[in-house]
Amino acid sequence: MTRRGSYAKGVAKREEILSVALDVVARRGYAGASVREIAEAVGLSQAGLLHYFDSKGELFTAILEKRDEVDYAGNTGDFLDDLVRVVAHNAEVPGLVRLFAQLSLEAADPQHPAHDFFRDRYAFLRETLTERIRAGQADGSLRAALDPERTATLIIAATDGLQAQFLLDPSTDMAAELAGFLADLRAS
């Protein structure tokens, strides 16, 4: 019985760490957010924090997983509108956008701790978007002429490309640009 309580406390502490880390990284960015700062913010030593995560790479990958969980918790069911909402929120947390962009490049190395996360995330997004595009075609809300797989890949490319442009020029309105692109997918 003690184990179960200890396990539950460990899970709760890990969630607390990730929630605090989301805030720290959103404010300070990937380069500015240290393991020490995150540990101090949750009342742990660096060694104590690394009890919950094997490395900084694993911690930052878990932060991105938590970001996705939080971002998609408020989905309304209209995947195009939900995507624009998430991208609009990203403009408010440039540190997380920078973390995503930096880790996605580093994760091209199969040995990187975030490699599997990004590979699986992109596969999941392509599959999910493809299914939702097909459903939109079936209910008449999306243009029938769209190639669902290609369109899904292009939506992902557009969102990632807009994030890169935003990081280089924060005046880039990612949500407005994406909304304009996605409007072209809707049936007239």
UniProtKB/TrEMBL annotation:
Q: Which residues form the DNA-binding region?
A: 34-53
Q: Does the keyword Amino-acid biosynthesis apply?
A: no
> Which ranges carry the HTH tetR-type domain?
11-71
Q: Which UniProt keywords apply?
A: DNA-binding, Repressor, Transcription, Transcription regulation
Give the lineage. Answer: Bacteria, Bacillati, Actinomycetota, Actinomycetes, Micrococcales
Keyword Magnesium on this protein?
no
Organism the protein comes from:
Microbacterium sorbitolivorans
Q: Matching InterPro entries, A to Z?
A: BetI_C, Homeodomain-like_sf, HTH_TetR, Tet_transcr_reg_TetR-rel_C_sf
One Pfam match: TetR_C_6
Gene Ontology molecular-function annotations: DNA binding
What is the official name of this protein in its record?
Answer: TetR/AcrR family transcriptional regulator
